[in-house]
Structure formats: structure tokens, C-alpha cells
Design a protein that fits this description.
Blueprint lengths: L10 H8 L11 E5 L10 H11 L3 E4 L6 H16 L7 E3 L1 E8 L2 E8 L24 H10 L3 E4 L9 H10 L4 E5 L12 H13 L3 E4 L13
Parallel strand pairs: 1-2, 2-3, 6-7, 7-8
Antiparallel strand pairs: 4-5, 5-6
Length: 227
């Protein structure tokens, strides 16, 4: 498996990080759901990492829709970033992507992490647009992420047409690795996970032995908010 940068850690390290996640992990320590100008966000990748350094974050993943161009852009900026920060350790940067899929005939978003960006299994999903054929089925998306060496997570499971109590068991049956347990559905300021949804999703994650992740789903100019 190709690993193009020292900041890409293997999935065993990613799993260890997820085992530490709790309601206060995001947004100051970790953030596993971020968007840049390479999809529908307003932040440049360089500005995103500069902000992450100022915040003092431990690790993050850019999860642009159907592209890893933001991640690749950051890789080119790492020498400059290290120089600007006096050689200090930068936040861990895992590969990430957000893929639109169909689960129980409902459109959902599946997040992929820690995968090999050169894997042929994932290439159809990294072309900048949503697939509308059989490859968009959740089982195929999950399997493709995992075949590329990554982990698959159901994003914001309480935001869809069907409830989390229906979608999470279905995703678990397909072999998904985790769920985005900590998410601010009301876009609260300051950012904090929505209590009711978090309780339900956390219980379901435990029931189906899934990892819990967190993310602000930032689309604006701050890593600390969704918009």
C-alpha cells in the first residue's frame, strides 16, 4: 500500500485515536469532518492547516466530497508549514473523503479515512462528482473504502430521511466501521454535540460495536463551526 507522507498513519493508529474520542474531543483536539475550496467549503487547505496549528489540534482529516485534491494540496505545503512553525510537529493528517451513497434507498454520506489514495478500488469515487449507478450503493462504497485500506464511517446519522435507529443497524450489517457520533445538528455556537442525537447514536454504536468519531463538518472559514 502506498503511503506518500509521514503524516499518514495506518488504520491501527486511527483506530487508537477513535477509541479516545468523547464529546469534548472536537473541535480542539481532533476533527474528522472538514471541507475546503476543493469541494463545497470556503477554506483553502493551507489556511485550514494554519488554523489547526493555531488551535493546537492533534489530528484531522479533510473530507471533501468525492475528491482528495485538498489533501494533495496540503502535502505540497508541508515543508513551508514546518518551516513557519520552527519544525514543530504538525497535526496528523489522515486521508479522507465524503462519498454520497444509497442505504435503504435513502441518500446518505459515507466518510472514508486512512485509505491509499492510489488504490484502484476507490478511484471511481474520487472524480469530483456523485455516482448515480450501482456503485453508489452503500455496500459497494463501504467495501471500496476498505479494499483501499481505509475505514468507513456513516456521517451525521441523524440527518437523513430515515432515523439513525434504522440506518445504523443497516450500515453495521454491511460492515461499516464507525458512525459520526458527536455532531452539532443545530450548528450551535460554540460548537457542541447535540445531546439527544448523541445519546442515541452513542448507544447504537456500542450495540453494534462501531467506532465513534466526531467532526464539525466545517464549510465556512472556521474549523470550530459548520458554517
Amino acid at each position: 500500500m502506498s503511503r506518500s507522507n509521514e503524516n499518514i498513519l495506518d488504520t491501527s493508529t486511527l483506530k487508537k485515536a477513535w477509541l479516545t474520542i468523547h464529546e469534548n474531543s472536537c473541535p480542539y483536539n481532533y476533527n474528522f469532518h472538514l471541507h475546503t475550496i476543493f469541494s463545497d467549503g470556503r477554506m483553502s487547505p493551507y489556511g485550514l492547516i494554519q488554523q489547526a496549528v493555531r488551535i493546537g489540534m492533534t489530528g484531522l482529516a479533510i473530507t471533501d466530497h468525492h475528491t482528495v485534491d485538498g489533501y494533495l494540496d496540503i502535502q505540497q505545503s508541508l515543508p513551508k508549514l514546518r518551516h513557519q512553525n520552527g519544525g514543530k510537529t504538525l497535526p496528523y493528517i489522515w486521508t479522507g473523503v465524503e462519498i454520497t451513497a444509497k442505504l435503504l434507498d435513502t441518500e446518505v454520506h459515507i466518510l472514508g479515512y486512512g485509505f491509499d489514495i492510489e488504490s484502484p478500488y476507490l478511484q471511481p469515487y474520487l472524480q469530483g462528482s456523485t455516482l448515480r449507478d450501482s456503485r453508489a450503493k452503500a455496500d459497494k462504497v463501504i467495501k471500496s473504502i476498505q479494499q483501499a485500506g481505509g475505514l468507513a464511517v456513516l456521517a451525521h446519522p441523524a440527518r437523513y430521511r430515515l432515523p439513525a435507529r434504522t440506518l445504523i443497524p443497516a450500515a453495521a450489517k454491511l460492515g461499516i466501521d464507525g458512525v459520526e457520533t458527536y455532531y452539532a445538528y443545530s450548528n450551535s455556537k460554540p460548537w457542541q454535540p447535540s445531546a439527544t442525537q448523541t445519546k442515541e447514536v452513542k448507544q447504537l454504536a456500542a450495540k453494534y460495536n462501531l467506532y465513534s468519531t466526531c467532526g464539525t463538518d466545517s464549510h465556512g472559514l472556521s474549523l470550530l463551526q459548520r458554517i
